[in-house]
Amino acid sequence: MTGLPARAGRESTAGSRFGGSPGAPYPGAVSVPSVPSLAELHALAPAQQPSYPDRAAVDAAVTRLRQMPPLVFAGECDELKAKLAAVARGEAFLLQGGDCAETFAGVTADNTRNKLRVLLQMAVVLTYAASVPVVKLGRLAGQYAKPRSSDLETRGDVTLPAYRGDAVNGFDFTPESRVPDPSRLVDVYNASAATLNLVRAFVTGGYADLRQVHTWNTDFVLGSEVGRRYEQLAAEIDKAMSFMEAIGVDVDELRRVDFHSSHEALVLEYEHALTRTDSRTQLPYDVSSHFVWIGERTRQLDGAHVELMSRIANPIGVKLGPTTSSDDAIALAAKLNPTNEPGRLTFITRMGAGKIRDHLPPLLEKVHAAGVEAAWVCDPMHGNTFEASSGYKTRRFDDVIEEVQGFFDVHRAVGTWPGGLHVELTGDDVTECVGGGEELSEADLAGRYESVCDPRLNRVQSLELSFLVAEMLRKA
Ligand code: PEP
Ligand code: MN
User: Fold this and answer.
1) pLDDT tens column, 453-470
2) Distance from Cα 296 to the centre of ligand 1, integer Å
3) 121, 232: one domain
4) Does 341 map to a domain?
5) Domain of life here (predicted)?
6) 26-83 pLDDT, tens per residue?
């Protein structure tokens, strides 16, 4: 079912229907390997990598990681790919969400459950209100490494290396904490394993049972306007389920949900050490997550991230910002998905509310006209970040909605399917994005700002977003 050639080497791009160029062979390579070595990847001068002071410690961490069992099974990646193919065909909608940056301290039962719960609530709203199957994908169990626009951070008269996520260094603003430590990569593996284990237990063990729709609507959400709206919808679902049960439909089918994991594939040592040959297909898979994506800052066509991702058989994503040309996107598709396999490639656009209506139409039209098979998903977060007067990084809820609305309008005009939503959110009552029904102001940000990187929608804002998007989907 995976359409990649058995040896997913560079030759495979030569016959691409997009006319992708095969590129130059690796220096000194005797035969084309299915996965380039770490040294070969580093020879491509990868962007956004940690500057580790101790090479031997890096090797030790990589050796340890190579011995660890896979976090996901390749067959599960294929299942997700089939679901994403349905998204690309316009038959399903992707909901991808979670923290900007997970932290080791955040690996708790409450935190994981709360994130899962808000995603389940959003998925129910989207599914029920728009009658579209929703593919649920957590931005979790591996989202620990961050690209940064600056290598350094200055506070007062002290300048230190920037925080690059718990995968790399510590958030504390001290020289010791900011030194990149490769043993953290092993900690990422363990934290991801613990998170994934709990998520798997929740989604198969009864917590995600559709008969629990009411119980997900708890505490601070219950008293909110959107919580009341959700309660009404949950009551309708209850009624529909009682009806189905009464006529003999097996509602036990609704006890579990499909849920998959994803993160940005950023630190090459980690992703490479967890790339393994699947015993069924002999194809390489990155078994650190079901889905991995390439960020806006690391999507260079000849760069190491695109190179590594071009060799694995997982479903993958690429972020596309406002500077992306249609030629860039077509070349990325040719290299990353030379056989044009449905479900393999997801383009995640993050243009900004003020730019999407200008930048997305020409991109989408040309890429679509070139016959590129891809799911198109909207990240309405990363083009809309600004610094509040108080110094907090924030986003306006209205800008998020405006970008999603622009995304739907452009797809409608071009005749393509607005395939999904990629959002930074938390299941908690944080104050990181301004606006929404609770009308959070810039002055409110100090109340409960917990993100170590970008601002996330809180649980009420996330639910509000899902109702608004359900409305847009119904019209689409
Ligand atoms: C992110 O998703 O947190 C991120 C850094 O996004 P982008 O690569 O689109 O800037
Ligand atoms: Mn982010």
Assistant:
1) 999 999 999 999 999 999
2) 6
3) no
4) yes
5) Bacteria
6) 344 333 348 999 999 999 999 999 999 999 999 999 999 999 999 999 999 999 999 9
Residues 293, 442, single domain; the answer is yes
Say how far residue 369 (Cα) sits from the centre of its chain: 26
CA 49, CA 60: separation in Å to the nearest integer?
18
**Residues annotated as binding site for phosphoenolpyruvate?**
139, 296-297, 319, 350
* Same structural domain, 161 and 39: yes
Using H for helix, E for strand and C for coil, what is the string for 18-67? Answer: CCCCCCCCCCCCCCCCCCCCHHHHHCCCCCCCCCCCCHHHHHHHHHHHHH
In a domain, 363, yes or no: yes
Which one, of 307, 350, 288, 300, lies nearest residue 145 by Cα? 288
Q: Is residue 100 part of a domain?
A: yes
Kind plus residue range of the DSSP H or E element containing 393: strand 393-395
| CA 464 to mean position of chain CA atoms | 20
Nearest-atom index, ligand 1, CA of 295: 8
Point out the ligand 1 atom lying closest to the alpha carbon of residue 298.
8
Confidence of residue 217 (pLDDT cuts 50, 70, 90): confident
Q: What pTM did the predictor assign?
A: 0.92
Q: Which residues contact 20 (CB under 8 A, 6 or more apart)?
A: 13, 14, 331, 334, 335, 338
Which ligand ends up closest to the CA of 266? 1
In CATH, what number is assigned to the domain containing residue 342? Answer: 3.20.20.70
% residues pLDDT > 90 (the chain): 81
268 in the same domain as 235: no
Q: What is the band of 2 on the pLDDT scale with cuts at 50, 70, 90?
A: very low
User: Within a domain: residue 29?
Assistant: no
Same structural domain for residues 109 and 237?
Answer: no
Residues 171 and 240 in one domain: no
Looking at the structure, do residues 226 and 353 belong to the same domain, yes or no? no
Domain residue limits at 383: 2-7+34-208+256-475
| Ramachandran area for residue 107 (φ above 0: left; ψ -120 to 50: alpha; else beta) | beta
Q: How many domains does the chain have?
A: 2
List pLDDT tens digits, range 320-364: 999 999 999 999 999 999 999 999 999 999 999 999 999 999 999
**Which one is predicted more confidently, 172 or 10?**
172
Coil, strand or helix at 276: strand
Ligand 2 centroid from CA 472, angstroms: 24
**Are both 241 and 379 inside the same structural domain?**
no
Q: In the 8-state DSSP scheme, what is residue 457?
A: B
- Whether the Cβ atoms of residue 67 and residue 352 lie closer than 8 Å to each other: no
The dihedral through the CA atoms of 29, 35, 41, 47 has a sign that is positive
Q: Is residue 251 predicted with pLDDT exceeding 60?
A: yes
Q: Which pLDDT score, from 0 to 100, does residue 354 have?
A: 98
